[in-house]
Automatic annotation (TrEMBL):
Cited InterPro entries: HTH_MarR-typ (IPR000835), MarR/SlyA-like (IPR039422), WH-like_DNA-bd_sf (IPR036388), WH_DNA-bd_sf (IPR036390)
Keywords: DNA-binding
SUPFAM superfamilies according to UniProt: Winged helix' DNA-binding domain (SSF46785)
Segments crossing the lipid bilayer: none
Taxonomic superkingdom: Bacteria
This protein's name: DNA-binding transcriptional regulator, MarR family
Sequence ranges assigned to domain HTH marR-type in this UniProt record: 17-153
A single MF term (Gene Ontology): DNA-binding transcription factor activity
One matching Pfam family: MarR_2
Lineage: Bacteria, Bacillati, Actinomycetota, Actinomycetes, Kitasatosporales
Gene Ontology terms describing biological process: response to stress
């Protein structure tokens, strides 16, 4: 008969840790919200559209397998499928079957999609610089890079992060 593991007490956050966590979460949420508002106000793109187009413009031929796109964005397949359908209707992307295997498909950026992201990107990057990079010193940016890489490393292999699970 299997035994159940002993119950352990949660490692509650100290007041300082709780303050840090809540401040970090608020900062992330506010940053996401401001970037989303700016993209929406100044272009015909949502932040989700922009995220998809960024992935597509990061590859030389502007095409990515659907599953790779889902993993890259950390989106569930159903969310991605619905969003891609809307982007196809707007002419920002197209879809193509994968000739190597009959099950997969590709997402391709269209000329209209490329024009849209090229128009939106300069103002977006300026706001990213203003809100995220400019307030920090070079040393703080180096520390934040190291901290971010360490936290991302701790998340490797965490099943909750796999959009297909």
């Amino acid at each position: 008969m299997p035994t159940t593991p002993p119950q352990t007490e949660p490692r509650w956050l100290t007041p300082e840790e709780q303050h840090l966590w809540r401040t970090f979460m608020r900062m992330r949420q506010e940053l996401d919200a401001q970037l989303a508002r700016q993209i929406q106000a100044e272009s015909d793109l949502s932040i989700a559209d922009f995220s998809v187009l960024v992935v597509l413009t990061d590859v030389p031929d502007g095409r990515v397998r659907v599953l790779e796109l889902a993993r890259n964005l950390q989106w569930e397949k159903s969310r991605l499928s619905h969003h891609l359908a809307r982007m196809v209707k707007r002419g920002l992307i197209s879809r193509a079957e994968c000739s190597e295997d009959g099950r997969g498909s590709f997402v391709l950026i269209t000329d209209a999609g490329r024009e849209a992201i090229e128009a939106a990107a300069p103002r977006h990057v300026e706001l990213v610089r203003k809100l995220f990079f400019d307030p920090l010193s070079g040393e703080q940016l180096t520390q934040l890079t190291e901290i971010s890489e360490r936290i991302l490393g701790a998340m490797q292999g965490c099943p909750a992060l796999d959009p297909d699970s």
